[in-house]
């Protein structure tokens, strides 16, 4: 198997893809958004509970490929408890990671999200990794909206 | 999978290629496609995405280069030497298409960009003339978006209704259900010849009989039909037949709308411009004859030439044998893939051509596609522009391996080995 493939499907990714964290509905969510990748059929719903400017709770449900699901799992774990501004900052770093590669962002700033660094070698999969982040951005900016990666 | 191809006579087949025992000489066929020999990601390319677009034989590429190098000028306009040459090549391609579809006359062949444009043309000329408020357009549950959306747009505009004939769990069209839905308000039946997502071959001749018995015209979407099954428009009896050059070993940007002459004559033009007129005054424009009435603007001349060359290339093969070879590889692929634990084939119609769609337990098609790609294997993953069909089978997407004449059983073995790797990885 190619090492690039191993980098993409690291054990952390496969684990989060199989057993996604925060995979549930938040019935009394303050914000909600849908993420859709019409090209491959990824479809997620994201729920956010805010405490002022802080993300008190965040969860998702839906279906998608291993990369999009693992990314959703890792993203929700990473931003829970952070402020909206911190989450936005993290998205910017994450975006650099998956488009330009791990050399452009210090691993210390990414935590477990660094597991998605292999995505940068697979341009067609960048959309999968970033879908749920775009959905988060939308959820935080507006009340309800469907985002697509197309 | 089909047993409909009659056996060709043993010794009398006249071909430019020497057939090997029991079929076409696939290795020689492959030699016409330089791209098939290129490595991909350090592996031998296994191209199983011909339903998206076929590869092009060098004869097609060379014909287009020759057109640009030796004949290029605008058609139907100049009195000069090159314009005559270009016009002869362009019209020569039209006649090859006529022969390929067994149409009565070359003027029944309209060059368009592809199947999508052909269907839109019919929807917004013929459809607009015939479909009014309360009327119905009948399609099937296995249509490609390009044979759904134009009709939806037309129906919305006209206050008409889009009616859908269902399919069974194998992906077979329920002919009785289709027949029931041809009613007094049905103005057109639009049906695919071969499903791009399932491979199902529809009994289009029978469908035409059923529709014509009630005076309803039929359009056949031949995007996957023309490359894989006989597309004889007189035998089928359809009113319209559409196909794309690039799915039949020709170039992109060129396609064909066949329409019965009496329909084309009666239809209003679609786009206005040069070449589609006889005379223009500010008071009144007189439209050109068919097919030129539907070919406004400078056409895709080199594309038409390339399509003509693709048809020449196909007709030089022993075609029945080539199709039989494709069917054998398909049957072998269905058999090999069915053995993989956790793999489910979507589309198991008894009459099927060139397509194997499948899903795997706990592995999303997109991940299957990425892992196979690293093995040099090209398949399509996604909804195949048939979202209502995906919904019918309860899957968001499938992985699809699709065949061309150049595919082989060892390539199926490579696919099966790649899928084993996928299974191990995500188990």
Span of the ends, CA to CA of chain B: 32 Å
Strand content range of chain B: 15-25%
Rg over C-alpha atoms of chain B, rounded to the nearest angstrom: 22 Å
Structural class of chain B: alpha/beta
- Principal-axis shape of chain A equals globular
The portion of residues assigned to helices of chain A is 40-55%
User: What are the segments of chain B in which pLDDT stays under 50 over at least 5 consecutive residues?
Assistant: 3-21
Mean pLDDT of chain B: 93
Report the CATH C-level class of chain A. Answer: Alpha Beta
Q: Which shape of chain B, going by the Cα principal axes? A: globular
Binned strand content of chain A: 15-25%
What is the CATH architecture assignment of chain A? Alpha-Beta Complex
**Major sheet size, sense and barrel closure of chain A:** 4 strands, mixed
Topology:
The complex is a heterodimer of chains A (150) and B (427).
Chain A: H1 3-8, H2 11-18, E1 31-37, E2 42-51, E3 54-63, H3 66-79, H4 84-100, H5 126-141, E4 146-148
Parallel strand pairs in A: 1-4
Antiparallel strand pairs in A: 1-2, 2-3
Chain B: H1 26-31, E1 39-40, E2 43-44, E3 46-47, H2 58-71, H3 81-101, E4 109-112, H4 115-130, E5 136-140, H5 149-158, E6 161-165, H6 175-180, E7 186-192, H7 204-212, E8 218-221, H8 225-228, H9 233-236, E9 240-244, E10 255-259, H10 261-266, E11 277-280, E12 285-287, H11 301-316, H12 319-338, E13 343-346, E14 355-360, H13 365-373, E15 377-378, E16 380-382, H14 387-392, E17 398-402, H15 409-426
Parallel strand pairs in B: 3-15, 5-6, 5-7, 7-8, 8-9
Antiparallel strand pairs in B: 1-2, 4-10, 9-10, 11-12, 13-14, 14-17, 16-17
Helix pairs in contact in B: 2-11, 3-11, 4-5, 12-15, 13-15
